[in-house]
Amino acid sequence: FHKPRTIHDFSAVVTGMLVGMSCPPTVPFWIPMIGSFFAIAVVKMLFGGLGYNFMNPAVTARAVLLASWPGLMTNWQFLTPAEAVASATTTSQATPIAALHYGTASTYGDLFLGNVAGCIGEVSKLLLLLGAAYLVIRGVIRLYTPVALLGTLFLLTWAFGGDAGLFTGDGLYAILSGSAIICAFFMATDYTTSPLTFKGRIVFGIGCGVLTVLIRVFGSLPEGVSFSIILMNILVPHIERLTRPRPFGEEGARREKAHS
Q: Rounded to an integer, what distance in angstroms lies between the CA atom of residue 253 and that of residue 214?
């Protein structure tokens, strides 16, 4: 592509790690390889390289893998810590979100520590929050988008989730289930595909939360965070245009021009 090489900044390594973490531990090795190729070659390079892609590469790769090989991407195998040490035979288990619909919901403790089935990088919320805290302390990410996303997910799930409808859903369970935390802190905060303005980041997070609830509660998919981020990535230019701060004097000049 006759462009400067950016392999030395390790952004591709981060993308590859996120793609691998977004897969179940039992998928064949070529699944994350295809996902990584799609993330870098298609989502990044075909749109101009690093900094020019309009969708998050790792999230888009996960969505493509889920749509292309749903059987492999939703084949959940669960090992307790004792079984993992003993290399015992794995047993199939539903994800926490799916189990909630079956009436066999996991405990908050299991969800927080990761004693549940799921993708490699989404099960242990304790480790995810520790990693997120490190990024916040180092100033790598801001909390505007994650808080807006998770807060909206909590409130709307509490209001519209559950079998009885209004105010019967478990908002905390929704946050601790699936890929909500890994997507909120490590994917929705991507510099290139998220708004730069303060208000824009809030709007972006709220939009992701709303779409996630619509997909989870009213759609046929148990997980919807990845798809919600992709949809909001498309709207980022419009969000930035509507939320950008106006330079001093611009509003007065606009009104004066309108009256003239």
A: 42
Note the pTM of the prediction, 2 decimals: 0.83
DSSP per-residue string spanning 39-88 = IIIIIIGGGTSTTT-SS-HHHHHHHHHHHH-HHHHT--EE--HHHHHHTP
Least confident of 31-45, 46-60, 232-246: 46-60
Q: Which two tokens stand for residue 173?
A: 């369970």
What contacts 98, CB < 8 A, 6 or more positions away? Answer: 222
Residue in this structure with the two tokens 């020019």, named with its chain if needed: 52
Cβ pair 157, 174 in contact under 8 A: yes
Residue 113 contacts residue 129 (beta carbons within 8 Å) = no
pLDDT digits (tens, 9 = 90+) for 97-135: 665 654 456 889 999 998 888 889 889 999 999 999 999
DSSP state of 89: P
Positive or negative: CA dihedral 191, 192, 193, 194: positive
Q: Which two tokens stand for residue 176?
A: 């601790």
The pLDDT tens digits for 147-186 are: 999 999 999 999 988 776 678 888 999 999 889 999 999 9
d(CA 11, CA 8): 8
